[in-house]
Amino acid sequence: MAHLNVDVVATDRKVWSGEARMVSAPAADGEIGILAGHSPLLAVLRQGALRITPTDGEALSATVSGGFISVDDNQVTIVADDVEVATATAGR
């Protein structure tokens, strides 16, 4: 099964990197869900919840304060002004 390669960075550090099945992010125009095979995208992020469902391990839930998300060829890059990790829960 196809997966996403995800990198989450804040202005001062790398927050998370790995393979994921799904990413949900707070785009300026509304919540956006990314699955493998998503068309290329560049969007501005607003403050809100970022959720990543990895292929293995614990799910990541965080709050971003703005930034942008880029998707191209199953590579998802999230660059946020600030990222505050809320919880990590058991993966599904």
Protein architecture, described:
F-type ATPases have 2 components, CF(1) - the catalytic core - and CF(0) - the membrane proton channel. CF(1) has five subunits: alpha(3), beta(3), gamma(1), delta(1), epsilon(1). CF(0) has three main subunits: a, b and c. One of its GO terms (cellular component) is plasma membrane. The protein is mainly beta and 92 residues long. The protein has a single domain, classed as ATP Synthase, domain 1 (Sandwich). It is 0% helix and 70% strand. The protein is built from no helices and 9 strands. Strands 1, 2, 3, 4, 5, 6, 7, 8 and 9 form a 9-stranded mixed beta sheet that branches. The protein is globular and about 30 Å long. The model has no long low-confidence stretch (mean pLDDT 93).
CATH topology: ATP Synthase, domain 1
* Secondary structure category: mainly beta
Rounded average pLDDT = 93
Query: Helix coverage percent of residues?
Result: under 10%
Protein name: ATP synthase epsilon chain
GO molecular function: ATP binding; proton-transporting ATP synthase activity, rotational mechanism
Membrane topology: Peripheral membrane protein
Domain ATP synthase F1 complex delta/epsilon subunit N-terminal: 4-82
